[in-house]
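User: My instructor asked us to take a sequence, write out its structure as C-alpha cells, and then describe one feature of it. I'm not sure where to start. Here is the sequence I was given:
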Amino acid sequence: MPRRTPPTILEKIIAHKRVEVAKAKEITPLETLKERVSELPRPRNFFSAVAGDRNRRRTSVIAEIKRKSPSAGEIREDFDPVAIARQYEKAGAAAISCLTEERHFGGHLGYIQQIRQAVGLPVLRKDFLVDEYQIWESRAAGADAILLIAEVLSEGRLLDLAILAQKLNLTTLLEIHEVESLLKVKRHVGFPHPGYFLLGINNRDLRSMKTDVGHTFRLLDMIEDRSVVVSESGIRTPMDLSRLRAAGVGIVLVGEHLMRQPDPGKALQELLGIGRKER
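Assistant: Let's start with the prediction itself. The C-alpha cells for your sequence are:
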C-alpha cells in the first residue's frame, strides 16, 4: 500500500477546529449567541477604517496581536493583549487583528472584548472559521471583522459565511495564498457588498509556513481592484510599504515583526515612517 502523506499543520488545525466548534455548540447553543448579538450595538466599520479615503495618503496597517505560532513558536512571553492594543492605537494603527485560536496560536476569544473596551479601533477576529456558528460567535464576542481562508473552505461554504457576516454587519477579510484559490474567488470580490469586503494575500504558505513578500506582487496582475487588497505576513520595513504602495496596495497586516520587538508601538511607528515623509 502507498504510504499515507502526514497531515500538514493547516490540516491538523482545521481538524481540531471542527472538534472545538462541536464542543462549543454544546456549551453555548446557537440561540444563546443570537440573543447576545441582538443586544449589541452595531460593529465598528472595519472596512472604512482601513480602506477609507482618509487613509489613501499613508499605508493602513492592521496591527496583529498573537502570542505564538506553529512556525515561530513562542513569539512574546510578556504577553498583554490590551497593553499591546493601546500601543498600536497610539502608534497609528488603522485597526487591530487578534488571534483567537488557542492551541496553536495562544489566543483566546475573550481577548476581542478586552481589546475593544480599551481602544477605539475596530478589531478583526483572526481564526480558522469553518462553520456558521463561528460567525455568530465572533459577532457575540465583539468582533468587527472576520477572516475567511479560501484554502480551507469550499466556494459554496465561503459564500455562505460571507453572506452571514455581511448580514451581521461584519467586514470579511477573505484570505488567499495559492493561485488556484484566487481563481476560485476573484469573481466574488466585493460579494455580497463591496463595503464589507477585503481581499487578503497571505505571503505565508500555510502548508510550508515559509514567507515571501514577493508573493503579493506575483498575484496582483490577476486582481482588478487593488484598493481592497491586504498584503499579509513578512512585512518588516518602510521600504516594503513603499514598494506595495507603488504597486497599488495601501493596506497591510503585520504581526510577528511587531510582536517580537521590545516596544511594539515604537516598531509600528518606525514601520510607518512616522517622523519622516513616507515615499
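For the description part of your assignment, you could build on this observation: The beta strands are 60-65, 68-69, 73-74, 95-99, 123-126, 145-149, 171-176, 197-202, 229-232, 251-254. Try explaining in your own words what that tells you about the chain.
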